[in-house]
Amino acid sequence: MPTFRSGPLESALAAQDVAAVAFALRNDRVAVPLIPGDGPPQVRVFRRGEVDRYMLLLFSSLDSYQTMLPEESDLTVAAYDADALRDFLSQNIGVLESVWFDVAGPHAMQAEPQDVLDALELSGE
């Protein structure tokens, strides 16, 4: 996959500006980790220990994702726009406990899944 980077999301995270993060999600794309392997692409979610809810980790770049898992060599992402991210969150909101942005980077941020969905719906109908 070609190198992916969202400058607007990187800048918003560096500033720790919640409104700018929401604006970047609505108007740019975000790197969404995919499960490695054959078959149709599936979003990779993570969980802590034995909890029954998951964390959606979103990244401003493929590099940021690779920083989180440097030992894995087959990391891939999909570049989701606002509509794709809104659809994923709408379908999975009940099993997500949190959304993290650039979790391994120097400017990580966390949000409630519903807050992210609400921000994305501002760009919808």
What does this structure look like?
This protein has 125 residues and is of the alpha+beta class. The protein has a single domain, classed as Uncharacterised protein PF11572, DUF3234 (Trna Endonuclease, Chain: A, domain 1). It is 37% helix and 19% strand. Strands 2-4-5 form a three-stranded mixed sheet. Strands 1-3 form a two-stranded antiparallel ribbon. Helix 4 packs across helix 5. The longest helix is centred in the C-terminal third of the chain and has 11 residues, at 82-92.
Question: Briefly, what is this?
Answer:
A hairpin with a 7-residue loop joins strand 4 and strand 5 (109-111). This protein has a 3-stranded mixed sheet with strand order 2-4-5. It has a two-stranded antiparallel ribbon with strand order 1-3.
Task: Describe the secondary-structure layout.
Blueprint: H1 7-15, H2 18-27, E1 30-34, E2 54-58, H3 62-68, E3 76-80, H4 82-92, E4 96-101, E5 109-111, H5 113-121
Parallel strand pairs: 2-4
Antiparallel strand pairs: 1-3, 4-5
Mean pLDDT: 92
User: How much β-strand is present in the residues?
Assistant: 15-25%
Number of domains: 1
Q: Report helical residue fraction.
A: 25-40%
CATH H-level name... which superfamily? Uncharacterised protein PF11572, DUF3234
How would you classify the helix and strand content by structural class? alpha+beta
DSSP summary: helix tally: 5
Name the shape in a single word.
Answer: globular
* Strand/helix succession: HHEEHEHEEH
The CATH class designation is Alpha Beta
Low-confidence regions: none
CATH topology tier name: Trna Endonuclease, Chain: A, domain 1
CATH architecture grouping: 3-Layer(aba) Sandwich
Q: List how many beta strands DSSP finds.
A: 5
With strands numbered from the N-terminus, the spatial order across the biggest sheet is 2-4-5
Largest sheet: 3 strands, mixed
Measure the end-to-end span: 32 Å
Report the radius of gyration as a whole number of Å. 14 Å
